[in-house]
Write a structure and sequence with these properties.
The model has no long low-confidence stretch (mean pLDDT 97). The protein has an 8-stranded parallel β-sheet, with helices on both faces. The protein has 317 residues and is of the alpha/beta class. It has one domain: Arginase, Chain A, CATH 3.40.800. The structure holds 4-carbamimidamidobutanoic acid and zinc ion (2 copies). 4-carbamimidamidobutanoic acid (ALG) binds next to loops. This is Agmatinase. One of its GO terms (molecular function) is metal ion binding. Its cofactor is Mn(2+). Pfam families: Arginase.
């Protein structure tokens, strides 16, 4: 348990030194095996508005260098409990969305076959579909908590079915989600029409809006989510635009009226005890960021997801 390779001692090698891996963790090839990997998926060909999330993984790594090894929010030292590594970036074809989806699904399944759980850093939200396919290939249809300003259950954009606004409709159609336990959290902002909500409900999704989080508070929200998920294998997908633009300006489709980073982190910590099998953090676009606000928020969210995975038992493989 304590012989895992962790970050170098920050009192010997200052945090701002060296090439940035996530939380200064070893790279995949520096550890004999990995229980948990942070994987970069630099891809933004699926976006409908501002591009730039292809640079998300590099910015989240840079924003993660101050993370320390003990997480008091969850009372765990994740890098001691489990061998956690940075698995680098997957090379994804920027000119062919279908090929990129296929590549990422294949790579994610390889990690799953080796018993490595992934927290994937995007990239735009298109990448959730291949990651959910890989999770379902291993665990069967998974429960989903989707933190986002947007529903991302639209049908097509410009006639195209694979975009960052459509992954969860495709996932339901493909049967990779357990539709008894799928929920959006943090949604807000104008829609194309009332039918967006009707169709989303028909697909099986529950919704806890950003305003609901404000009114109900984080503990009640976490309790409700845990009750909905139960003991099912759970995938958590976090679009950083779930945060208010004040907390995450560096993203492609910002919407006013979002959650604070404190609320998001507390809701995540309330998911302790669920059977998390994988997660992603997407839509960080550093060209619109300031003072690493978004990168730091995404790094902390990623760290809490790694911590939740480190707290899960090994029994589920
Ligand atoms: N940021 C994500 N994933 N989706 C936003 C799609 C919103 C739109 O184009 O209307
Ligand atoms: Zn979004
Ligand atoms: Zn999204």
């Amino acid at each position: 348990m304590t012989d895992h390779i962790g970050p170098p001692d920050a009192s010997i090698l200052p945090r701002y030194s060296g090439i940035a891996t996530f939380a200064r963790l070893p790279m995949l090839d520096q550890a004999p095996a990995a229980d948990i990997a942070v994987l970069g998926a630099p891809f933004d060909t699926g976006v409908s508005y501002r591009p730039g999330a292809r640079f998300g993984p590099a910015s989240v790594r840079a924003g993660s260098r101050l993370l320390r090894p003990y997480n008091p929010g969850l009372d765990v030292s994740p890098f001691q409990e489990k061998q956690v590594v940075d698995a680098g970036d997957i090379g994804l074809n920027p000119y062919n969305i279908g090929a990129a989806i296929e590549t990422l699904q294949h790579e994610a399944q390889q990690f799953g076959a080796r018993g490595t759980k992934l927290v994937t850093v995007g990239g735009d939200h298109t990448i959730a579909l291949p990651l959910l396919r890989a999770a379902a290939a291993k665990h069967g249809p998974v429960a989903l908590l989707h933190f986002d300003a947007h529903l991302d259950t639209w049908d097509t954009y410009f006639g195209e079915p694979y975009t960052h606004g459509t992954p969860f409709r495709r996932a339901v159609e493909e049967g990779v989600l357990d539709t008894e336990a799928v929920c959006h959290v943090g949604t807000r902002g104008p829609l194309y029409g009332r039918k967006d909500l009707d169709e989303d409900e028909r697909l099986g999704f529950g919704i806890i809006t950003s305003a609901d989080v404000l009114r109900r508070g984080v503990d009640e929200v976490s309790d409700a989510l845990r009750a909905r998920i139960g003991n099912r294998p759970l995938y958590v997908s976090i679009d950083i635009d779930v945060l208010d633009p004040a907390h995450a300006p560096g993203t492609g489709t910002p919407e006013a009226g979002g959650m604070t980073s404190r609320e998001l982190l507390e809701i995540l910590r309330g998911l302790r005890g669920t059977k998390l099998v994988g997660a992603d953090v997407v839509e960080v676009a550093p060209a619109y960021d300031h003072a690493e606000i978004t990168a730091i928020a995404a790094a902390h969210v990623t760290y809490d997801l790694v911590s939740l995975l480190a707290l899960c038992g090994d029994a589920d493989g």
